[in-house]
Amino acid sequence: MVTSLDDAVGAVLKALSRSRQEHDTIVVFSSDNGGERFSYQWPLRASKGSLYEGGIRVPNILRWPAAIGRRQVTDVPIYIEDWTATLLDIAGAAPDPSYPLDGATLAPWLLFGQEPPTRDLFWRMRGQRALRRGDWKYVQTQGTNGPSHQLFHLASDPSEQANLATRDPARIAELRAAWEAIDATLLPYPA
Q1: CA distance 171 to 185
Q2: CB of 164 closer than 8 Å to CB of 153
Q3: CA angle centred on 48, ends 84 and 174, rounded to 5°
Q4: Which of 2, 21, 53, 150 can bridge 139 by disulfide, Cβ–Cβ 3.0-4.6 Å?
Q5: In angstroms, rounded to a whole number, what is the distance separating the alpha carbons of residues 97 and 62?
Q6: Quick one: CA torsion of 16, 105, 58, 167, rounded to 10 degrees?
Q7: How far is residue 106's CA from residue 115's CA, in Å, rounded to a whole number?
Q8: Which of 72, 74, 75 is CA-nearest to residue 64?
Q9: 142, 100 contact by CB (below 8 A)
Q10: Would you say residue 94 has pLDDT above 90?
């Protein structure tokens, strides 16, 4: 599968080059989830199907020679829906007001060096929930003895090994409340 994907992306890039459109064409590549069970994710914890970083953190690759320099790397977390808002913004278009977007435009950050958007990132899956605010991440998993509430500081612990929940109960309560507030605005998770 990876070889086929690599070949297909290569074919698209070659076609853009042959047609002399590569300089002004935005190419975005992203995955939808973390690595499969046989992937080597270190230092990230877990894999696909988990809300730990190994299950949700994926690379995003952006190529736009006309506006973005080569070999730039950032660890700023973004949300895949940000690409829709960003591409519309770059194209000078706006979403239909009746259908607001979930993502935020990254154009001011990517093109003009402004601060990237800051907001809570929210996930929910059967028996799991997570919320990230800056470098802090709240995770709840369902165990045999009930829910386990965990708090991690991702900048100092990207492998999510040091659960700080008992050391910082105020922060975990704040992030848990933020998760609950977002969840209350959504349709119920399917049973």
Answers
A1: 22
A2: yes
A3: 70
A4: 150
A5: 27
A6: 170
A7: 9
A8: 72
A9: no
A10: yes
